Structures are given as C-alpha cells and as structure tokens.
Amino acid sequence: MNRIKNYNQVVNSISENSAVIIAKTQGCNVCMPVTLRLSEMMNDYPTIPLYEVYIEDVPEFRGQHLVFTVPTIIVFFEGKEVHRESRFINWENLDSLLSNIK
After folding, report:
1. Helix H or strand E encompassing 40
2. Could you report the per-residue pLDDT of 30-81, keeping only the tens digit for each?
3. Domains in the chain: boundaries
4. 74: part of which helix (H) or strand (E)?
C-alpha cells in the first residue's frame, strides 16, 4: 500500500486504469482493522493499486472527494469514482466489484 502525501499524487493515482484509495485519520480506531482487511483483500487483485490518504496530510482530498467520515474506501476506474463505502464496509460487494474491474 502506498501512502499519498499531497493532492497531486491523488490526481496521478486516480488517472491510472483503476485504483483503490482508503481515507483515514491518525486517531481513528476503526481505520486500522479496516485497512488490514482491505490490504488482505487486495492481495487477490495485484493489478489494482491500493493507496492510503491521511486527511491530516492531504486536507484537499476531504473537500474534493466529499469525505465526511473515516474510514472511507473509494474505488476509481478509468479516472472516475465507481464505488464508495464509509465506516461500515460491505466486503462482499467490494470484492464483487473488484473482481469485475481487474
């Protein structure tokens, strides 16, 4: 998993064919287990890059992508957002979506 440290990296990351970004904060207790589970899931999709964004590091991400709560997982395909889940993640839906875009 790559850590994004500025908004230009976000723009470059989502311009790829597909990408998954998890937005989180340093003090979020829910973010760590969600991140671990997402990382494990993404092992099945090695061609889809996974990025993490700490809102404290890149506050523009929160505004530009309307992140109101963390953790938020956003899936991009061909530069467009195709899926978003926040806080309570439906892992089966996410897995199904990723298997269709890989």
Report:
1. helix 31-42
2. 999 999 999 999 999 999 999 999 999 999 999 999 999 999 999 999 989 9
3. 2-101
4. strand 72-77
Predicted local confidence at residue 17, as pLDDT: 84
Contacts made by residues 95-101, CB under 8 angstroms, sequence distance 24+: 95/41, 95/44, 98/20, 98/41, 98/42, 98/44, 98/45, 98/48, 99/45, 101/18, 101/48, 101/75, 101/77
Residues 6 or more apart whose CB falls under 8 angstroms from that of 69 comprise 86, 87
pTM recorded for the entire structure: 0.92
d(CA 32, CA 21): 14
Q: Is 7 helix (H, G, I), strand (E, B) or coil?
A: helix
The CATH classification number of 2-101 equals 3.40.30.10
